[in-house]
Amino acid sequence: MQLSFPHRETWLHAVNPGLKVIFLTLMFVLVILIHNLNVMVNVAVVMLLLLCWTGHPWYRLLLYASPFILIFISTSTGMMMFGKGETTWYKFGLIHITEESFYRGLHLGFRSLSMAAAGLLFGLTTRPVRLFYSLMQQWRLPPKYAYSFLAAMRMIPILLDEFQTLRYAIRIRGTQQRVSHWNVYGTLKRYAIPLLAQSIRRAERMAIAMEAKGFADGASRTYYIRIGYSWADLWFVLYFIAFLTIAYTIGWAFPYYPAMLDVR
């Protein structure tokens, strides 16, 4: 089953996945600690600019980002309409839009957009194999856990294929017509038991195969794929340091709205 689209590899694909995890995790922490709306807007722009180097066309990026745009709208409007504040702009029933709640809503929306952009960047530019090889080689993750995660990820499309095959088999046999659509337990049992049995058998065979191949604690291993550091990692680090510093400086020195330096 094809779960990804063809794309062009850029310098972001060459960045060490372990380094990418560290910097994006620090990015999450930084975004949570920012309470200046002006800085938050600049940080969101910095993260969105990185999506231009993912190697995917703009229409596909819009498709991937559509759920996050919906989250941006929902979180912003929720805070705007039901927040608290003193300067009332509009009030009708339960809806109470104030100046303070409006800017808090924008701040919350841009915060969620920055986090979504970071997650989307990591997902579009990181291969699972390179990620776990990096964790094994640079961060000393035990191979049995890394390869177990890789095997589990490989089983996801197999499980989806089996689910589709099971649906077709039930439809051909006419079993679905004799069961009510409202019988959730019957539907769950009809699909869950065969899929669970197949997964248990496959997991047992995989565990025996991994044990036979020597995936045990304390065993020294060699790697065909070597993950190291390159100039792409340096550019990645410099991009974050330089542009986040610029975003912070502009947000405080030249604010778009001076009254919103702290939205708490």
From TrEMBL:
Keywords: Membrane, Transmembrane, Transmembrane helix
CDD domains the UniProt entry points to: EcfT
Highest taxon of the lineage: Bacteria
Membrane-topology annotation of the record: Multi-pass membrane protein
Record's subcellular location: Membrane
Gene Ontology cellular component terms for the protein in this record: ATP-binding cassette (ABC) transporter complex
Record field: transmembrane: 21-49, 61-82, 102-125, 234-254
Biological process terms in GO annotation: cobalt ion transport
Protein name: Energy-coupling factor transporter transmembrane protein EcfT
